[in-house]
């Protein structure tokens, strides 16, 4: 990845407060798999240096001429990147299909929904990553747990745990070829379809 493009440069570009519609795309780099990526920071200190700019970065993402998918990491109401969550069309909360991870997700979702309710009605979509063979049962269990807790979230979606396919994707293999028939890619396409996202096949 080129060092002269990424989140640091995006922060510098929006520092004036009036970012153009193309500023996010300008700082993205095309990966071999066909995805445009704005590279993040590698140290917490770098992120803290422009923490006051997150609202402007969020506005730039909303105004971008493309869909923006942001990995916000471990998110709570005190996290600096909350402005991105508050400007989201949908918020996906991801957990592995283990008891510990699901319990963390329940706590995090409850906190997030309380914070987001003060800003906008943003759909929260839980996503479980785990074995495909028991995905249906895992989704039903999480839906029941969140419903019992009074959390009005979207039905849980799932993505199969498929480390071999993930490794191939990370190595740059095109998702439009044989890789597209793996559990991981079929699961990702199903998730995108459930969110109303139209698949774009790279040329």
Properties at a glance:
203 residues, alpha/beta, two-stranded antiparallel ribbon, globular
Would you write up a description of this structure?
With 203 residues, this protein is an alpha/beta fold. The chain has a domain at 1-68. Helices cover 41% and strands 10% of the residues. It has nine helices and five strands, in the order ααββαααβαβαβαα. Strand 4 (124-130), helix 7 (135-148) and strand 5 form a beta-alpha-beta unit. The longest helix is centred in the middle third of the chain and has 18 residues, at 99-116. It is globular and about 50 Å long. The mean pLDDT is 87.
Q: How many β-strands, per DSSP?
A: 5
Reported for the largest beta sheet, the result is: 3 strands, parallel
| Class per helix and strand makeup | alpha/beta
Mean pLDDT: 87
**Overall body shape:** globular
| Share of helical residues | 40-55%
Helix/strand layout:
Blueprint: H1 7-13, H2 23-26, E1 29-30, E2 36-37, H3 44-49, H4 54-63, H5 82-86, E3 91-96, H6 99-116, E4 124-130, H7 135-148, E5 157-160, H8 163-170, H9 183-194
Parallel strand pairs: 3-4, 4-5
Antiparallel strand pairs: 1-2
């Amino acid at each position: 990845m080129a060092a002269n493009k990424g989140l640091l440069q995006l922060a510098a570009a929006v520092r004036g407060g009036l970012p153009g519609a193309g500023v996010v795309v300008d700082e993205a780099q095309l990966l071999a798999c066909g995805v445009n990526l704005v590279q993040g920071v590698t140290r917490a200190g770098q992120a803290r240096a422009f923490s006051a700019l997150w609202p402007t970065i969020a506005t730039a993402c909303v105004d971008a001429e493309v869909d923006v998918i942001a990995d916000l990491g471990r998110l709570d109401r005190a996290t600096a990147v909350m402005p991105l969550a508050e400007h989201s069309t949908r918020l996906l909360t991801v957990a592995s299909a283990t008891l510990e991870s699901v319990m963390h997700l329940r706590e995090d979702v409850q906190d997030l929904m309380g914070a987001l309710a003060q800003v906008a009605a943003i759909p929260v979509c839980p996503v479980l990553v785990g074995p495909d063979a028991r995905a249906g049962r895992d989704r039903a269990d999480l839906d029941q747990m969140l419903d019992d807790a009074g959390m009005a979230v979207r039905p849980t979606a799932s993505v199969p745990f498929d480390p071999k396919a993930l490794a191939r994707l990370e190595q740059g293999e095109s998702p439009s070829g044989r890789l597209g028939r793996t559990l991981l890619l079929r699961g990702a396409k199903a998730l995108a379809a459930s969110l109303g996202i139209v698949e774009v096949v790279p040329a």
